[in-house]
Design a protein that fits this description.
Length: about 130
């Protein structure tokens, strides 16, 4: 008999096939499960996400979007691929953390403002997005 829960979140981040978007302090990151809008090619970890205010589903952030898609709300933690045709799927969204800025997709200055983020260059010269 099923539990009624249709997804499981995983704390696993050290996999060879997993894009590492968290730069440091994994224990301080806040990650939550979200329902993703259908996207034919799926989503790649590091995608800046928005929440469509009409459908209530999370989708790719777009600077010139509408219905809430122009407001960044987080960053996708794991890839979401092989989505069911015209259906939704589940993903994990980082809502707080320290991420490698160069691995984030569709990040712009407006998204940084929406996330309340700042960019910091560490001792190795790598830019870290903190929010």
């Amino acid at each position: 008999m099923g539990s009624g829960i249709d997804f499981v979140t995983s704390g696993q981040i050290f996999r060879k096939d997993n894009r590492m978007v968290i730069a440091m302090n994994r224990h301080q990151a806040s990650i939550m499960g979200v329902r993703m809008a259908y996207e034919a090619n799926g989503y790649i970890a590091g995608q800046v996400l928005a929440r469509n205010s009409v459908s209530g589903l999370h989708c790719k952030y777009a600077t010139a979007g509408s219905s809430g898609t122009d407001a960044a709300v987080g960053v996708l933690f794991n890839d979401v691929s092989d989505m069911p045709a015209s259906g939704t799927d589940l993903g994990q969204m980082i809502v707080k953390g320290q991420l490698f800025e160069d691995l984030l997709i569709d990040l712009d200055s407006a998204a940084k403002v929406d996330l309340g983020a700042r960019s910091v260059i560490n001792g190795s010269g790598v830019t870290i997005l903190m929010f």
